[in-house]
Amino acid sequence: MSEASWCDITTENAEALVEFYEKVMGWKKEPVDMGGYSDYVMMKPDGTPVGGICHKKGVNETLPGGWINYFTVANLSNSLEHAESLGGKRVGDVRHHGKDSFCVILDPTGAPCALYEKGSD
Length: 121
Prior knowledge:
alpha+beta; 2,3-Dihydroxybiphenyl 1,2-Dioxygenase, domain 1; eight-stranded mixed beta sheet; 8 strands; 18% helix; 47% strand
């Protein structure tokens, strides 16, 4: 069974959206260097990560706007094969975060999500 692992949003104006969520939700931003600009991990006041707010450029240029949920799967390759055979589409290539791997997909209705496989320690 899959579980939601993370969520983030890709937007043209990350700074304005960060300010919105800081004021509305009380979250704090933690900048992540993206090589010339920063994306942001948003944190609860106790330091617990909530999600990410990313610029729609660089590695995120082709991602759809709106919140994207990342669902943990046991085997990313198998899940991608099943998704594509059932009418889903990949958005970009498989990407890596440390030992973990993920890929954004569109389900058959066009709704985005990401499949996320946790790597071995």
